[in-house]
Structure formats: C-alpha cells, structure tokens
Amino acid sequence: MKNTVWILIFLLGTLVEICGQQADKRPLPNVIDYKGNKILIPGDSSRINNFFNKLDSIRASGQGQLNILHIGGSHVQAGYFSNRVRDNFDEINGLNRPSRGYIFPYTAAKTNNPSNYKVSYKGVWTTVRNVQRNREIPLGVGGIAIYTEDMDAEISILLNTESEGFKWNFDRLLLIGRSTDGEEAVIPILKLDELTYLRGKYDAEAGIYQYDLPLTCNSFTIQFVQRDSRPHRFILNGFVAENGESGVTYHSIGVNGASLTSFLECENFESELRLLHPDMVVFGIGINDASGTNFSPSRFIERYNRLIEMVRNVSPDCAFVFITNNDSFRRIRRRRYAVNRNGTTAREAFFEIAKENGGGVWDLFSIMGGLGSMQKWENAGLAKRDKIHFTREGYYLLGDLFYDALNNYYLNLDE
Q1: 35-98+247-411 with 118-242: one CATH topology?
Q2: For the domain 35-98+247-411, what is the CATH superfamily, name and number?
Q3: SS3 assignment, position 358
Q4: Partner of 11 at 20 to 30 A CA spacing, among 75, 137, 194, 214?
Q5: CB-CB contact of 169 with 159 (8 Å)
Q6: Closest C-alpha to 72, from 288, 374, 349
Q7: Where are the domains of the chain?
Q8: Looking at residue 200, what DSSP letter applies?
C-alpha cells in the first residue's frame, strides 16, 4: 500500500470534486457500475506494473518523466475525455507542471478543436485526414495534417484558456512538418513578440523543426515564410510543446471517424511516434470499426496487433490499456435507432487483444451498463441523441472514472 497521506489527500479531493459537481446538477441516476470501474488484467501484468513502478519512483524522487498517449476517434478529438484525465493527473504531478504534449490546430483544419487551447490562423489551409481515401499527403501519428501555399500563412496557439490561467507552458517547441520543395522553400519562423523571431533547427530524418526558447511561454505564433514569389507547399502535422518538469505528460490524439485501418495507413506513424516517447498507450479505437453490419472480430484483432507492433517497434517496454467500445445504437432511419449488437462481440475481442499483448482493459461497455445502456445515458443527459457520442458532462464523467480506475490500480499495486 502506498503512502497513507497520499491516499487521504486523493479521497478528500475526490469527495470535494463530487460534491461540487452535484451542487449544480441533479443527482445522477443509477447508470454506472462503480464496482466494475477498474483496470482488468486478463493476462500478464508485468508491463502495466512496470509503468506504475516507474511512476512511484518519480513521485518518490520528484525526478523523471512519463508519457501517456491516448489515441482514438471522435471521443478523443473532442478533448473533453482526455483533458479530464490530464487534469486529474495534476493530483500525481503535484506542484510540477509537465508539458501539454502533442497539439494540433484543428480549428485551422475546420473541425472541432479541444476547448482547453485556442487556435487562430491566417491564410488558406487545406485539410487531409486518415479517414480519406486516395489522399496524396503523407500522414503521421496524429492522423491529420493541414497544408498551405499561402504567402500570408500563419498559425497561433494559446495553450491555456482564461479559465485555466497559466497552467501549461513550454521552453522547447517541436514543429512536425516539411516543405515539399526542400528545406529552404518555406521557412517556419517562430514569433515570440514583435522583436523576437526564432528560426528552428531542422531535422530532415525526423521531419521536425526544433525551437529552443530563451524563456518559458504558454503561446506561440508560427509564420510560414516563402522563399520567393512562387508558391511552395508546406505540410503541418502538429506540434509538441515540451518543458523539463517532472511528472506525467498526457498526449491525446483523435480523428473524427477514425478506425484501426485509418491509423495503420499513416505512412509516418512510427517515425512521429518516436517524438512522443510513449511509456503507456491508451487505445480507444474501435467504435467506428464495429459500427457496420459486417464487423469481423478476427480482422479487428489482427489490425490491433499490427498497430501494437508499430508501437513496440518504437517503445519495446510500453504498457497498454484498452478502452472497450461504449454501447451505441445504429441509425435505421430518421429518429429511429437500433442497438448495435457488435458491442458485445467487440468487448470480447478487446479482452483477447489485451491477453495476447499483456495489456489492461477498462471495460467501459460493462461499466455503463452493457447492451442498450446508451439510452439510459441519454436520458440522464450524459449522451447525445445520436446514441454514439457523449455530452460534455458525460465525457467529464468518463475521464474521472478512467482516472480513478488507473489510480486505484496504482494505489493497490503492492497488495
């Protein structure tokens, strides 16, 4: 059992948060299996145990960094679920503020951007996503890119919203991207203020520009300077904002509509994954794979194993946690829905994948009530009318439940 004081602080913080949540909303109906809210280990537990032992060492010494990558579809792109987990890890990070991790300017891609950071842009940008067929632009770990040939192109990102204050900061920025006409055709210049401009150090093999800042910042602007009057294309695959503080960095990557095949077909997935140094990958991919009538568990398992192999090529000791698909419905016709019975089959497949790869399972399908439970979550104001996605409050609840499951596994690791 870990430090008793730490446990008491955690329980007190959880109690205060729950009381605060319930003060401004009606009591939640009985839609959650709280006893089932745990990380289940159907096979070898050594990988996930090693991860939490590393975490314990960091907490004891105050030194070291761990990276968690949460990857999925629209549930992750929305940002509510993953950022709730990220915020909860502040309990473990204490006074340290490790980096925000991977970010992408979804606003410039004209799709929904997580609300916890702000994006503004200038110029004309074109979007490429891993769900598109016959695309010509190579994609990486983020599964999405934007490109421009505009002479006035610019991207600005503010890592912290006003409600969060100065929470996320960085002193090193990695820009993942390249000019298709050579290194000097388009030069991305980092603007700190009206007098300070930085040119990044380009690593052609990694496909990144690295900016080492003279001070700690929580925002940046990149201006894409064309070499001459002839337009040249620049492809932007995302940013990684880093600092040297100890603790857990929680990266999140999601693309609306993405399936396993979507990420498997990203040409630079492995090379860009190296930039994130994952110690644990949380897989939340599957809801789109199992949405059709021809869902094949064997193909699902085979594709997951291929994606896991790509992760192991980069991070051999990486731990894995699999989030089973939430219950969902299929739209039959306008305002008519039917339960997606693939949910049960997919759940079984997740346990087989975890057993084969030494991973843990967070059984969301069962925690929320099993087959048909999405209707109850919608009635409770926790799921949307499409009976696939959750409301903001629903995603916040999922983030709290998932963090509690991880934390309880950690706290009871020695038992």
Answers
A1: no
A2: SGNH hydrolase (3.40.50.1110)
A3: coil
A4: 75
A5: yes
A6: 288
A7: 35-98+247-411, 118-242
A8: P
Q: Which residue's structure tokens are 């950071």?
A: 117
Cα–Cα–Cα angle for 255, 221, 210, rounded to 5 degrees: 80
The DSSP symbol for 149 reads -
Q: 106: buried, middle or exposed (CB in 10 Å: 19+, 13-18, 0-12)?
A: buried
Question: In the numeric block, which tokens belong to residue 403?
Answer: 């963090």
Provide the residue-wise pLDDT of the chain in tens; the chain has 415 residues: 454 434 444 444 444 444 444 434 444 558 899 999 999 999 999 999 999 999 999 988 989 999 999 999 999 999 999 999 999 998 888 888 899 899 999 999 999 999 989 999 999 999 999 999 999 999 999 999 999 999 999 999 999 765 555 578 999 999 999 999 998 999 999 998 888 899 999 999 999 999 999 999 999 999 999 999 999 999 999 999 999 899 999 999 999 999 999 999 999 999 999 999 999 999 999 999 999 889 999 999 999 999 999 999 999 999 999 999 999 998 877 777 889 999 999 999 999 999 999 999 999 999 999 999 999 999 999 999 999 999 999 999 999 999 999 999 999 987 6
Burial of 78 (0-12, 13-18, 19+ CB in 10 A): buried
Which two tokens mark 255? 């693309």
- The C-alpha atoms of residue 354 and residue 377 are separated, in whole angstroms, by 27
CA-based radius of gyration for the chain:
21
- Which homologous superfamily does the CATH classification assign to the domain defined by 118-242? Galactose-binding domain-like (2.60.120.260)
